[in-house]
Amino acid sequence: MKKFQILFFFLISLGLGAQTPAEVVDNYLEAIGGKTALKNIKSLQAEIRVESNGIVMDGRLAYSIPGKQYTEMTFRDDKIVEVINGDQGWMINPMTGSSTPIPMTAEQVRAAKKNITAEKLLNTADYTLEDLGEKVLKGNTYRVLNVKFKQGDEPARKQYFNKSTGLIEFTEVASPMGGTIFVAFEDYKDVNGLKFPASILSYTDSDLDSPAMSLTMKNLQVNAPVDNTLFSKPQ
């Protein structure tokens, strides 16, 4: 009888200690700086490096929230630029044989604008949460939530939360080409009291040893003045 009581209270304590999906998200938002600080992000700027299939490109990005994004990459001395400004967007790619801005389609603009945000989980009205329990990935046990966005063209994603730090370390999404894409968020850095992953790695299916693409950021600035001419379309 005594053993049964001990087991009973042990199981109750486990239930009381387990975080709800909403609490897991709240804990994550607090871990990366808190809701108030996240809502006060007006701009992000960083130097970036992208590596894929042996190709290395350096560049920079600038977000002016809401609605403006500038991305510049250099490849073989050619500067490739992509700009979003509200509902308009354009690209400059000398590799096409022209340095004239090419208008982006409405679908391209809509897809790009999804990224112009400080944190997708900040607005809880935009998504629902499904608790997938715990899963082991690369030898670590994570709390996993399936995030389903209410906006129809935003794919659902499984978020892997580090149980100790509360940080998201992996995101799993279905690939448009079939299969699964895993995105790893590593080397979180503190910037003005906020945490950002300085390294983002993309893996195909369950091969988590050889990234298909990597993006590293340095000199990340939060709420520093952004040159607004970056978002003006060249004439």
Structure, described:
The protein has 235 residues and is α+β, with helices and mostly antiparallel strands. It has a single domain (39-231), classed as Lipoprotein localisation LolA/LolB/LppX (outer membrane lipoprotein receptor (LolB), chain A, Clam). The chain has helices at 2-17, 21-31, 35-39, 106-113; strands at residues 43-52, 55-64, 68-75, 78-85, 88-92, 102-103, 127-137, 140-149, 157-162, 168-174, 180-191, 194-204, 213-222. The chain has a 13-stranded antiparallel beta sheet, with helices on one face. The longest helix has 16 residues, at 2-17. It starts with a helix and ends in a 13-residue tail after the last strand.
Q: What number of structural domains do the residues give?
A: 1
Q: Return the CATH class.
A: Mainly Beta
- Shape verdict: globular
The helix-and-strand class reads alpha+beta
Radius of gyration, taken over Cα atoms and rounded to an integer in Å:
21 Å
What is the CATH third-level topology name?
Answer: outer membrane lipoprotein receptor (LolB), chain A
Order of adjacent strands in the largest pleated sheet = 6-5-4-3-2-1-13-12-11-10-9-8-7
Which CATH architecture would you pick? Clam
Count every helix, treating DSSP H or I runs of 4 or more residues as helices.
Answer: 4
CATH 4th-level superfamily? Lipoprotein localisation LolA/LolB/LppX
Total count of strands: 13
- Series of H and E elements: HHHEEEEEEHEEEEEEE
Q: Could you report the average pLDDT, rounded to the nearest whole number?
A: 87
Helix content: 10-25%
InterPro entries: LolA/LolB/LppX
Signal peptide: 1-18
Organism: Robertkochia marina
Protein name: Outer membrane lipoprotein carrier protein LolA
